Amino acid sequence: MDEQLLEPVRENIYQLNLGPQHPSTHGVLRVLLKLDGEYIVEAEPVIGYGHRGHEKMGENHTYLQFMPNTSRMDYLSGLIYNHGYCLAVEKMCGIEVPERARYIRVICAELNRISSHLLWFGTYVMDLGGFTPFLYCFDDREQILDLLDGVSGSRLTYSYCRFGGVNRDVDDAFVAGARRFIARLRSRWVDYHNLVTKNVIFIHRVRDVGIIDRDLALRFGVTGPNLRAAGVAYDLRKIEPYEVYDRFDFEVPIGGKGDAQDRYHVRLAEMEQSCRIIEQAIEALPAGRFRNEYRYQHVTPPKGDYYLGFESARGATGYYLVSDGSRYPYRCHIRVPSFGNLQVLTEVLKGTMVADAISILGSVDLVIPEIDR
Amino acid sequence: MGYWKEIVEGGWSLVEGMRVTAKRLVRPVVTVQYPRQTIDMTLAYRGHIELKKFAESGSHRCVACGTCERTCPSHVIKVQGVKAHARSDKVATHYWIDFTRCSLCGLCVEACPTETLKFSREYQLDGETRWDGVIDLIQRLEENRS
Ligand code: SF4
Ligand code: SF4
Questions:
Q1: Fewer CB atoms inside 10 Å of the end CB: C or N, chain A?
Q2: How many domains does chain B have?
Q3: Can you give the residue range of the structural domain that contains B66?
């Protein structure tokens, strides 16, 4: 790009609010753009529109009562957040989890990850002007929601995991349904690739757009598929295996230069890896209890600080809980991946065009309510 | 070379895409025409909570202990009960829930010592004021019984 165009000539610079109601900000994100013609000179994300005070609520609820909140932060991967929270509290209290429950949790969490990526895929392509793939993705995603609805009773805010297990057992219908879904999803890849991946318009909208390279990503704490697209194989499921992830054989897909196209490919590849994990977990699903006999209701963890990190659909997430030995956490902090992923946009958006900004915003897969919490 | 090649390849990719769409045109429809058609709710479906009716007593088993009230994160529940005389068990006379605040988490259902709570299959809920969300479950149970 021509450097001269970026020279700030104050009179020619005007401000544009992208959001908070813009359809491609998916939630209530506002990006304050300073524009010189079509080019962005400065981009400043403004957050806080969806602030509900979840962390403060955590301090005023018992450990169990906070559990329903967790699936409302990142509503697209609510089950993964439930899962992480239960793992954190189980770690604090030293609660043993039955083997079957661990496998059920992994299967459901991976299904949730696929559904989250499918929704991203659909909405991203829709942001770029293709409406049809969106409907196909929702058709596929619907199958997952039906499956999870069948076991948890809810389609989005699952509240499925409990301390020491899960809420309901899975049955054969679920297992068969999950197998069918994986077969179906795999048969759909061809269509998706023909419709989107190879589409010339799509390629031109994503190739070399919004490059988040390795250094930039690490500097801003970018995680998840965005970091892996830059070529860093950082996946908490692999490097700090929690639950039973170390028993499964799966790969961590990585990209090269970290542009929007790489992020796209990494997410698609991740869905396939999630399918592999689910298959193995179903194969090895042990019999037994799905929940401890003793129902942990109001737990009182011993004094101390605890942190548990896990990989949500958007990146490295974690719960930091401080216990003062009472039934309520003294402090409840949540590390959300979207915050780091959003910050990096101040750098990345500089010097790009407004149309590319839409493509970049979509490609990093932000969920705003989890940033605001 | 690159220019023309890109035009040809790009053009072809659009044709391929259209082919996928065309194939879909003759596939069966996956949506249903709600509200003329509906889909069966799953067994696990979580509607608002409801009192179970037990065959042996023909009524609920709520003893107004208030465990559910204390467990609920959103202060949805208010339960009141009386003792018929000093030695008898307490029986709930009123069980109000404010459905508008319920997060359908199910913690109350699990906490109940007498296991008298369950989820209803209600999903078509509407109201004109926020007070329409306030339901007395005992009244509801009795109305359903008659
Ligand atoms: S389902 Fe949850 S929010 Fe609703 S009444 Fe029961 S405990 Fe309260
Ligand atoms: S916990 Fe059960 S028995 Fe106790 S008040 Fe609630 S519904 Fe009634």
A1: N
A2: 1
A3: 49-145
